[in-house]
Amino acid sequence: MANPRVPCLVFVALIASLSGCSADDDNGAAQPNPQNPGDGGQNPPDPFNGDCTTARWSNVSDACWSCLCGACAATLNACNDGCMDALECSIEKKTLVNVGAEIACEIRATVAECLTGAPEGAAQGLIDFDTCLISAMKPAGFRVCEDVCQIPYPGDVCARYPQ
């Protein structure tokens, strides 16, 4: 039986041009780049290079980057600048939910707030990466790394973006 918390089918229904989902099997720990220690935005991120073990192309802490890379390296490595911009926007604009039944609201909010005008491929990269974060093994919570990355769940996304 498929995991009902995986948003892939909802995304496909709402964004017909997108298809496919994947989850990463690589749970190896990532090592931050010693030349650019992530500090949550104090230093600029590295340029995208497709290898999260050697570069940090997001304004997140070393601990958050290491967790994300360790849990979902394959989809993070495919999440280029446009995808990462959309992810950072979803955190900043508080469009993420932590209840599987509210994924459709998250999609509406994220599309409206963060994907309008995004580069081609950004939405698919975000779908794949978020699907991995939700599907990854974790002791508690909705997304893996939500505690170390301080992912906000405002609880009002469906009220702000009703169907």
Query: How large, in whole angstroms, is the Cα Rg?
Result: 15 Å
Largest sheet: none
Counted by DSSP, the helix tally is: 6
Structural class: mainly alpha
Sheet-strand content, in percent, reads under 5%
What shape does the CA trace take?
A: globular
Helix fraction?
40-55%
Distance between the termini: 27 Å
Total strands: 0
Low-confidence stretches: 1-39
User: What number of structural domains do the residues give?
Assistant: 1
Q: Main attributes?
A:
single chain; about 160 residues; mainly alpha; 6 helices; globular; disordered N terminus
Description:
There is one protein chain. The chain has one domain (8-12, 38-160). It is built from six helices and no strands. The chain has helices at 8-14, 62-77, 81-92, 103-115, 122-135, 157-160. The chain is globular.
Summarize the structure.
With 163 residues, this protein is mainly α.
Ordered list of secondary-structure elements with their pairings:
Layout: H1 8-14, H2 62-77, H3 81-92, H4 103-115, H5 122-135, H6 157-160
